[in-house]
Structures are given as C-alpha cells and as structure tokens.
Specification:
Blueprint: E1 2-9, H1 15-44, H2 50-57, H3 61-64, H4 68-85, E2 101-105, E3 109-112, E4 115-118, E5 121-124, E6 134-142, E7 148-156, E8 167-172, E9 178-180, E10 185-186, H5 191-194, H6 196-204, H7 208-236, E11 239-243, H8 247-250, H9 256-262, H10 264-278, E12 281-285, H11 305-308, E13 313-315, E14 322-324, H12 325-337, H13 340-343
Parallel strand pairs: 8-11, 11-12
Antiparallel strand pairs: 1-7, 2-6, 3-4, 4-5, 6-7, 8-9, 9-10, 13-14
Helix pairs in contact: 1-4, 2-4, 6-7, 7-10
Bound molecules: zinc ion (ZN).
Zinc ion (ZN) is lined by residues 294, 296-297, 299, 301, 316, 318-319, 321.
Length: 356
C-alpha cells in the first residue's frame, strides 16, 4: 500500500464563505495550542504532546463549528511541527495572512462522486481524475490566489506489472512529441501555436487575467497529455530509454516554439518516477550521433547537419538498410540503454561523445 495525495478544485464559489469561516476556527485552535504550549514551557519547562493537546481542546469543536476530528488534526499537526522544528513556540497563524486550511480525517467526511460532505454541508469539486482508493485523511486548503482545493490522501494498492517482453527507445522529436523504436508515434497538439493568436490578442489588450488564464490552460493540457502518455508507456514496456536532449540548448534556436511546446523535462520526470513505482527499467542515455548512426550496422552513414534535418528517410551506404530517421534514432537510443552484456553482440559500439 502506498499513499498518494490528490488535489481537487472546489466548484462552487459560495463554498468559500463557509470554508473561510471554518479556517478561522482552525486558526483559533492553532493559536490556542501555541499559547498553551508556551505558557507550560515558561512555568514547567515542559511542552504538550499531541495527546495532551487533544485533551485540552476536547469539547470545543461544536462551538467552533468544526468536526471534533478536525480540532484533533490541528492539534496533532501543531505538535508535529513543534517536534520537527524543535521549537516550543511556533508562528501565530493570522486570519489575514495565513492561507485557509481545514484538516480532516476520513471519519469526518463523506464522499459521493464529486461531492464531499463536511460538517453537514456538501462541497462539490471538479473530479479531474478518479479517486481510486480509500481516503485516509485530507484537508481543505486555499492557494495564494484564494482558490479552495480539497486534498485527499488516498491509500492505493501497489500495482505490480506483468512483464510484457517489450522494450523501447524514445526519440523526442520537435513536432510529433516522440517516436518509439518500434515505430509507434506519440503525437500531440502544438498548444503554443494553437493559442498563439488568442494570447497575442489578450496581450495587446493588456488583459492580464486572460493572459494568465491562457497560460494556465496550456500548462494543464500539456500536463494532462504527459500523464496519459507516460502511464501508457510504463505499463506497456519493460525497459524504456530516452535521450538526454537538453531543451535549454534547443530553445535558443529558431525551433524554440516547438521545443517549449514539447516540454521534455516534465515528460521525462514523469517517466522516471512512474517507472520506479511500477518496476519498469528506465535509463537516460547520451543521444549524440543517434540520428546519423545506422541502427543495423552502427556506421555513421546518415544525413548530417542542418540540411539533414529535413531528410525523413535514408538508406545506409554500408549495409543498405532503409531507415525512418526518427525511428532509427529511437532504436539507437534503446540500444544505448541496454546493459553492456546485451550490447556486445554488435560489432562496433558507438563512441562516447560530448554532449550536444
Ligand atoms: Zn548500416
């Protein structure tokens, strides 16, 4: 079993009013714990444990309009922070400056589809992805923009994948996001170009909010696509190799728009942590010369330079194999990611070369 935190945005704006009121109560409990703790330290040179604080705060929940377990959760969090920072007094939580926060335990809430009931009041949220597990605890929390979210800590059973016997190298391209060594292409919309006109219009009109909203939309769409693609990949393949292309270098060239659209970094990060979670072997390899090297005979016979970028297909002059440029590169990347012992069957290994 492992614990995952899922965050969902609260739907109805009117909910904020009630949540803010409750978060004030949580602030009150926190500050009460803080004061009691400091006083006890001053008098007896001792601090309260979470257990003591629970006894001290017992019975105040109803008057504060909170679930009793929320009061407990605040006290426990307070004690935990004291311990963690080795302090007898923490910062006061302020009504105005601190972001809203209402912790709860599973027994204090009820979740039905996209609605969470707390303190007898339902709060609807955007069910952006399934919860898919047993909720242990969580919190309502506010972000710096004042939006409310419900965070759920969910217990999920660890997925054990059955080996598929499939391996792939991935060539991260500029236009279609990625080409796999088995010829599969993962393509996605060019979001930056898609929203280019809208974005320019908003910028000219100096509509700051609109500009932020469009950027957020692009970011979320990209993230969503990355999540779906990487989940599919780690489930399907036992071994995944990716080139170590540095997008910051490419960003300086005229391909900048396509590159930032592709967003390698996030995609690779997701691949790596999802691989660890599920038991897929993930490696990043030096991909220099992967496009010009023949994946069959390892001769550097491919099209070179800027002009070579336009060539989609080529034939190796050494061995006569016909290659699709991207798929050939992906095959080389896969081969590089293999353990040395599996590579020795090939005649001349690629020489190590400096990074791009
Ligand atoms: Zn060849």
């Amino acid at each position: 079993m492992n614990l995952t935190t899922l965050s969902y945005r609260i739907k109805d704006e009117t909910a904020g009013k009630h949540l803010i009121q409750m978060s004030y109560s949580c602030t009150f409990v926190w500050n009460f714990c803080n004061q009691s703790n400091a006083e006890r330290w001053a008098k007896f040179g001792k601090t309260f444990t979470a257990f003591d604080l629970n006894k001290l705060t017992a019975g105040c929940a109803k008057d504060l309009g909170l679930h009793s377990q929320t009061v407990q959760a605040v006290a426990e969090e307070y004690a935990k922070c004291c311990k963690q920072f080795k302090r007898v007094k923490l910062n006061w939580r302020s009504r105005k400056k601190s972001l809203g926060w209402i912790p709860f335990k599973a027994s204090g809430i009820k979740i039905e589809h996209d609605s969470i009931t707390y303190g007898g009041r339902p709060f609807r949220f955007w069910l952006s992805r399934p919860i898919g597990g047993r909720v242990r605890f969580g919190s309502f929390a506010q972000d710096s923009k004042g939006h409310w979210f419900v965070n759920l800590v969910v217990e999920k059973s660890v997925e054990i994948r059955t080996p598929t016997g499939k391996e792939c190298g991935i060539d991260l391209g500029l236009k279609t996001l990625a080409t796999l060594s088995d010829g599969v292409e993962l393509s996605r919309e060019n979001l930056t170009r898609q929203y280019e006109v809208q974005l320019a219009r908003a910028q000219r009109a100096r509509k700051k909010k609109r500009v932020t909203a469009i950027h957020t939309k692009i970011k979320n769409k990209r993230k969503d696509w990355n999540h779906k693609a990487t989940t599919r990949l780690v489930r399907e393949y036992d071994r995944i190799s990716v080139g170590n292309v540095s997008s910051s270098n490419l960003k300086k060239t005229r391909m900048a728009k396509s590159v930032s659209d592709a967003g390698w970094a996030d995609f690779k990060l997701m691949l790596s942590y999802k691989s660890i979670g599920i038991g897929t072997v993930y490696t990043e390899v030096n991909e220099s010369f992967s496009t010009v090297t023949c994946s069959s005979c390892k001769a550097r016979s491919g099209p070179r330079g800027q002009a070579g970028l336009g060539v989609r297909e080529w034939v190796c002059v050494e061995c006569g194999s016909r290659h699709n440029r991207d798929q050939n590169a992906a095959k080389n990347i896969l081969w590089h990611g293999l353990p040395r012992i599996l590579r020795t069957g090939h005649c001349t290994p690629l020489r190590e070369s400096p990074r791009l």
